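Researcher: Quick test of sequence recovery. Tokens follow.
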């Protein structure tokens, strides 16, 4: 390799570059991103209405060049990139980690301006628009919407969150997790409007739209395989595919990628900071070593801090055949254990970080070493004790 170009200087792309250099990679590394200072996204939403915005720039090791610009065209073989300013970048290997763009509502929202949160500039614009004791509408049912709504309520703003169903996090978390979070946020002052549609929208001083993201693939070659949602299809080594066959020198990872083969092919797109970091680190090391046959098999996981509430997911927590609630739901500290064919496949955890850490360790084990449904009979399974037994 002579030049490794990485489209996207978010967490996945930056970690890939850092791991590549740290593992002794010898190619010149170029990160390309339209943002002058790419930043970590979670601190922005979690401190959106705090006294100070927690702006955490993503650090690059010496020797990695950041090109500020927008990629307007990628040649199909991945060896040439064209930027909006007319610049052309030649590369011998390409990693696409462009991530997502924030979706905007298709319906006009009454009242004040509509903001999304994908950058430090977005967060600063929201803070500037709200002032003191603002009336804020939050559109969305996912992590970002809940983080923004709770942050606003804790700061003394009036908040109405418009949900597309009867609880938040539908399709991402078990009903018990969604309802527990909704109840705790409501106690903190968030007003939830359930099963909302445009006829329910009322005027607010400011709107925050957190309704998901769309893969940034518009300027990428049409020949590259995509799923129905527009994510780039990759094999278990993150090689991009063309007509189902792995490309020679192009990889994609992070939020923009969908594993179509390999150990985690049935999980679907993994839009998670933790997973993006894991994938970037793994791929950077593989590229530095010149390895092409290994398959990424880390345990995918996600976290969301919503005011004082701590919610985690590890492994497969959707599409499973059995779910068992373990712990006291009323206390707001419990887990939901997921099983496939009787074997633990994933764990959702609310307000118990040590249990989440134990779950990740257990899920990294072969299936034969994991708990079964019989071990969780009666809704009691101490994950930390299970790890201690394995060590003894």
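Model:
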């Amino acid at each position: 390799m002579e030049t490794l170009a990485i489209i996207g200087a978010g967490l996945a792309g930056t970690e890939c570059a850092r791991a590549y250099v740290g593992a002794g990679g010898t190619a010149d590394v170029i990160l390309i991103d339209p943002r002058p200072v790419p930043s970590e996204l979670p601190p922005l939403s979690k401190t959106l209405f705090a006294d100070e915005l927690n702006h955490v720039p993503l650090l690059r090791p010496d020797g990695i060049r950041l090109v500020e610009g927008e990629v307007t065209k990628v040649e199909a073989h991945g060896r040439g990139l064209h930027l909006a300013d007319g610049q052309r970048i030649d590369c011998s290997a390409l990693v696409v980690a462009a991530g997502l763009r924030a979706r905007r509502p298709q319906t006009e929202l009454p009242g004040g301006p509509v903001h999304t949160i994908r950058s430090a500039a977005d967060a600063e614009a929201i803070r500037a628009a709200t002032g003191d004791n603002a009336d804020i509408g939050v559109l969305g049912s996912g992590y970002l919407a809940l983080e923004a709504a709770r942050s606003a309520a804790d700061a003394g703003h009036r908040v109405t969150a418009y949900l597309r169903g009867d609880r938040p996090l539908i399709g991402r978390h078990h009903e018990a997790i969604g309802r527990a979070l909704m109840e705790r946020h409501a106690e903190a002052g968030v007003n939830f409007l359930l099963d909302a549609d445009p006829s329910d929208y009322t005027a607010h001083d400011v709107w925050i739209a957190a309704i998901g993201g769309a893969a940034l693939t518009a300027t990428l070659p049409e020949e590259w395989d995509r799923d129905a949602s527009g994510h780039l299809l990759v094999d278990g080594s993150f090689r991009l595919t063309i007509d189902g066959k792995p490309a020679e020198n192009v990889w994609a990872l992070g939020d923009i990628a969908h594993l179509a083969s390999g150990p985690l092919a049935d999980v679907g797109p993994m839009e998670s900071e933790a997973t993006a970091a894991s994938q970037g680190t793994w791929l950077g090391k593989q590229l530095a070593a010149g390895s092409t046959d290994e398959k990424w098999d880390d345990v995918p996981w996600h976290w969301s801090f919503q005011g004082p509430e701590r919610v985690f997911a590890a492994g497969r927590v959707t599409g499973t055949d059995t779910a068992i609630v373990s712990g006291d739901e009323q206390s707001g500290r419990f887990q939901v254990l997921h099983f496939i064919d009787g074997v633990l496949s994933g764990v959702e955890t609310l307000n118990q970080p040590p249990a989440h850490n134990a779950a990740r360790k257990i899920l990294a084990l072969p299936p034969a070493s994991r708990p079964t449904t019989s071990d969780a009979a009666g809704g009691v399974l101490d994950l930390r004790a299970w790890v201690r037994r394995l060590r003894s």
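The CA atoms of residues 79 and 91 lie 5 Å apart.
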